[in-house]
Design a protein that fits this description.
Layout: E1 7-10, H1 20-35, E2 45-50, E3 57-62, H2 69-76, H3 82-101, E4 114-117, E5 120-123, H4 128-136, E6 155-156, E7 162-163, H5 169-185, H6 197-204, H7 217-226, H8 237-259, H9 274-287, H10 308-319, H11 324-336
Antiparallel strand pairs: 1-3, 2-3, 4-5, 6-7
Helix pairs in contact: 1-4, 1-10, 3-5, 3-8, 5-7, 8-9
GO molecular function, one term: ATP binding
Domain Protein kinase: 1-252
Protein name: Protein kinase domain-containing protein
Amino acid sequence: MNIKILVTYKKFVPVILESKTTLKEIVHEIQLRRQIDFHNNIIRFCGIVTENNPKDFFLVMEYADSGTLKNYLKENFKNLTWNDKFDLAFQLVHVVSCLHDEEIVHRNLHSNNILIHQKNIKLANLGLSKRIEEASDPQSIGMIPYVDPKSFTRKRNRDNEIEVYSLNKKSDVYSVGVLLWEISSGRPPFDNEPYDIALAMEIFSGRREIPVSDTPDDYINIYTGCWDIEPDNRQTMRQITSSIKKIEYETIEANDVNCDEMVIDDHENVVVDNDHVEESIEKDVVNEDHNYDEEMAVEEEHEIEVNDDNIKELIELLSSMKIEEEKHKILEYLNEHSII
């Protein structure tokens, strides 16, 4: 049986491969991917390909046909129903919840590094760009509207050294809250303003985006709870996942009632068994499995010259990872198609 795989080739910009620190972050990213490769809402790492020039190498990744979440919402928002939005929201919170179950904190969630393939959410990286950014500039802030406001302040210890706030699971929850609002609105937060220190200070002081008028109250309560200024007041990703799934169930049930054109007498009541709904939700949260298309294309990005020693170290580190079976499969495919 011949299986076609849709992939994209990723080359790194020059600064990425100039230090051992960033190289180790790349390897760390790939190790994390192997840890949670079972999840269909994470872009899969397939392997490494080299060209004739030994200084050129590519990471081979699963391809996403609809680009970033930001662009997907911009181009398709008017055609999305609330069921569609709830589905995107559930996929997002579910995959982040799975990361947290594996003790992985993303730390850099925003709509430009979340991709869409066949209407499915795909996390494009597991915080790699944030770690590399911090390696080169420890005081960098990042995509301000999505970042936990607690990280905007700087404290000094007794030695007058700056103590940087460590982004954590509750920081991911804050970012998810902003993304849930973005899914409901179809646009990035504060999109007509510069993402600068002034905006950061306003957000730290309590400024938030305004809920869209037709948004269900339960959905608003979820994402506004996520972006509470106090991390301890934010729910866990598992709790948020259950809440989103419950909204999905209730919406589906309401739609079923409308579609069946049920006539209910004034004195009759419709009773929803919440225990049954929550039990079903828990099963679905564990067993959720989105189908995806395995058809294939190839896309190339930026070129770069890299250091021979760094490349050698990267390949040695990757080769030491316990992914031999997967590596052989991709190498066989690439050899058969004269890619390497």
